Amino acid sequence: MSPAAALAGCALVILALADAVVTSLSMVTGTGPVSGRVAKGVWRALLAVQARAPRGARLLEWSGTCTLLATFLTWTALLWAGWWLVFASHDAAVVTSRASVPADGWARVYFTGYTVFTLGTGDYVPGTTWAQVATTFAALSGLFLVTLSITYLVQVVQAVVHKRVLAEQIHALGKDASGIVAGGWTGNGFSSMFNQHLVSLTAPLLRLGEQHLAYPVVHFFHSSSRHKAPALAVAALDDTLLLLRSGAAPEARPDPAATGPLGSALDQVLDTLRGQFFSRAERERPAPPLSVLRRAGVPVVDEERYAVAVREHARRRRTVQGFLDSDGWRDDRA
Q: Are the CB atoms for 148 and 154 separated by under 8 Å?
């Protein structure tokens, strides 16, 4: 018997199950040590390929699916390899069901696979008492992993749908800050319905941040459709809030009870995402000019006062640019 092989196998099994549990159930760390690296590696590889692909290529549309598949395959490989090492640690651990002849290496791989996934094929059986116990635990761990993976998949799909709905909800107000401002301005002030729309965005925006924290793989589901891209929606919303809170004349600004909580929610979401999914960009995202408000007929502050406000928001503008870059939208104004 090889104790080293058995210990190494147990370590891999524990690693696979612990990584799956942390990734699927943890509301704090988000991903396990293995799946987190796998997800980021797949995303960076696809970003690199996309950068060299012809313009118009939509490789990133498959990023979320590829990341999920890579994560599930990694868990499966770790669990399979771990139990194989356990069953390979002793010659009599796996034998043929008829002649009780010790199985060779590939037969043990086969036995491990159908045991872990509870297929029930019986041409090989455990040959010792401890191997019988190990077979039971292997089947239990496989069933646990499959069930956990399916549950995780359902939650991820729901979170992806939510983030795309939120993006569409924001873009429904206007495709950019200019459209949002023009749609809310009545000629004498911003309509009460516009204020209600801003208020209605606060809770879904906070939920977006929490879902990214709970299910980090959600970040890697990229939408090539601009009106379904959360990063673009957040950037447009940030532009709009900058204009409404700092560019519009005080008497023309919408109700602070609508813009204040929404601005705080936006800050909280960006703080949640920054560090785990992206870092603050070195360049600042260009601020929307006051001419956006003037074209809509909104009274504005003087240019110098607005420039001061833009400089005060420079860190957040770099954070928003980092969010855009991390989602593959480097040329977001195109």
A: no
Give 261: exposed, middle or buried? Use CB within 10 Å, 0-12, 13-18, 19+: middle
3-state SS, residue 289: coil
Distances (CA, A) of 217 to 77, 144, 205, 274: 19, 20, 18, 15
Burial of 304 (0-12, 13-18, 19+ CB in 10 A): exposed
pLDDT in tens, 265-290: 999 988 888 877 777 888 888 999 99
CA distance 92 to 115: 17
What's the confidence (pLDDT) of residue 78?
96
Long-range Cβ contacts of 301-308 (<8 Å, 24+ apart): 301/246, 301/247, 301/248, 301/249, 301/250, 306/246, 306/247
pLDDT of residue 118 exceeding 90: no
Q: Classify residue 128 by its DSSP letter.
A: S
What pLDDT is stored for residue 184 in this prediction?
A: 92
Q: Which residues pair with 278 in a beta bridge?
A: 274
The structure's pTM equals 0.82
